[in-house]
TrEMBL record:
Organism domain of life: Bacteria
PROSITE patterns: PROKAR_LIPOPROTEIN (PS51257)
Region (Disordered): 145-192
Pfam family of the protein (one): Sod_Cu
Domain Superoxide dismutase copper/zinc binding: from-to ranges: 38-168
InterPro entries from the UniProt entry: SOD-like_Cu/Zn_dom_sf, SOD_Cu/Zn_/chaperone, SOD_Cu_Zn_dom
Cleavable signal peptide: 1-21
The keyword Signal appears for this protein: yes
Organism: Ornithinibacillus xuwenensis
Compositionally biased region (Polar residues): 145-161
Signal is among the record's keywords: yes
Protein name: Superoxide dismutase family protein
Amino acid sequence: MRLVLVFLLSIVFLVSCQSKAETSKSVDMYNASGDMVGTAQLLEQPDGVQIKLKLEGLTPGFHGIHVHEYAKCEGPDFKSAGNHLDPEGKEHGLMHPKGSHLGDLPNIEADGGGLVDAELMLPRATLKEGKMSLLRGEGTSLIVTDSQDDGVSQPSGNSGSRIICGKINSGDKEASTESPTDPTEFNEKQEE
Ligand SMILES: [Zn+2]
């Protein structure tokens, strides 16, 4: 009986911990036309946040990818997401002596078929609370650009236009701000 009680208490403890400090996050990625073109799995690690990225439909070759300030992916230009996430007031670029932005990531490469299957690391970042959190405020976003990031040019490494965007935010907040009935979404579900 006592063992059962301890067991139940530890489950309650684990569940309550998970709801406060998130350790993983699944992000849906959309192109400028609003089509879902992949996912990013974010995982809290001791030295930062790991990002497992799967995308399709890109131009073969290298593309820039960055975490941006706001969880707003309004197409087609995704300017709504703001600048690169930079809570420390640094310069842009992984190769810049005064860099880098917290949201700066190495370029990703799409293969001949336009597919990306990459594992990236965002050192210093966290999914927990605090200055370096990707879920701070209303959240942030993950954006892929047309061209590759040169690693030094200001403010964003000459990486071209923003082509894919995914919101990194807590699911609860999103549910409360979005309208419950979206006719387009309903139609899409009906077609499936
Ligand atoms: Zn940057």
